[in-house]
Amino acid sequence: MTNELGTLGVWAHESALDAKLARELESLGYGAIWIGGSPNGRLEAVDTLLDATERIVVATGIVNMWADDAATVARSYHRVVARHPGRFLLGVGIGHREHTQTYQKPYEKIVEYLDQLDEAGVPVEDRVLAALGPKVLKLAAERAAGAHPYLVTPEHTRMARDILGEGKLLAPEHKVVLSEDPEKARAIARPRVQNPYLGLANYVSNLRRIGWSEEDLADGGSDALVDALVLHGSGAVIADGIRAHLEAGADHVCVQALGPDPRAAYRAISEGLLS
């Protein structure tokens, strides 16, 4: 699936995606649309976007293993690929401890879920894992096409590539704000970083792992942290930040535009990277 995704995709909450936006993103040259917000295992949103387009890949970023059993997801996978072969990538993960009462033995849950997907005939090459830490990144290399890390920087991408090795898909998400005013950009970005991510143990642990201090993580995040996690500037400046992921070893970067006009950001970024 790596080659079919291209180098640039869009990550957006399911509620922000529709057929019109999907067609525009395809016309701009984006290779994939990642459906965020834990789309349900029936994958109706995947059908909608694929039916509206001709070439672009649709991926889930991610289906929550605690919310939807593997059998349901596998049936949906087979339905989707029968209608749109080669255009769907199943992203799965375990979500957040703070949001799941049954969140116990998460690593064992991932392994069990992947075993069940194997039994149901979901190919390794058509699935990716949400992965941040070394243990799950190694599992992604062994049991999936690769990894889809969220809320990361190029420093994490470099670490992840070292763990995954060559030949495995690495598709990090990165948030952006199309604004050349740093204060305005941070006013949009900081609330989206602080709530919920700086209150979730897996993201905070990962940021510590790649070198951010307790001071950076406090009070909604330092300017340096917010700027690293949410690129801002012109389309060209943001494009340079995305290239940093590619240079660090990413195959594909999923851009999530924040602010009142995400479409403008997607157009500007496509001009900087895809034209």
* Number of structurally distinct domains: 1
Helix proportion: 40-55%
The CATH superfamily label reads Luciferase-like domain
> Helix segment count?
13
SSE series: HEHEHEEHEHEHEHEEHHHHEHEH
How many extended strands?
11
Decide which structural class fits the backbone: alpha/beta
Mean pLDDT level? 95
Instruction: Report the sheet-strand fraction.
Output: 15-25%
Our Rg estimate from Cα atoms comes to 17 Å
Looking at the structure, what is the overall shape?
Answer: globular
> Can you identify the CATH class?
Alpha Beta
Q: Residue ranges: pLDDT <50 for 5 or more in a row?
A: none
Task: Write up this protein.
- It is a single chain.
- This protein is of the alpha/beta class and 275 residues long.
- It has a single domain (2-273), classed as TIM Barrel (Alpha-Beta Barrel), CATH 3.20.20.30.
- The protein contains 13 helices and eleven strands.
- Strands 1, 2, 3, 4, 5, 6, 7, 8, 9, 10 and 11 form an eleven-stranded parallel β-sheet that branches.
- Helix 2 (19-28) crosses helix 3 and helix 12 packs across helix 13.
- The chain starts with a helix and ends with a helix.
- The model has no long low-confidence stretch (mean pLDDT 95).
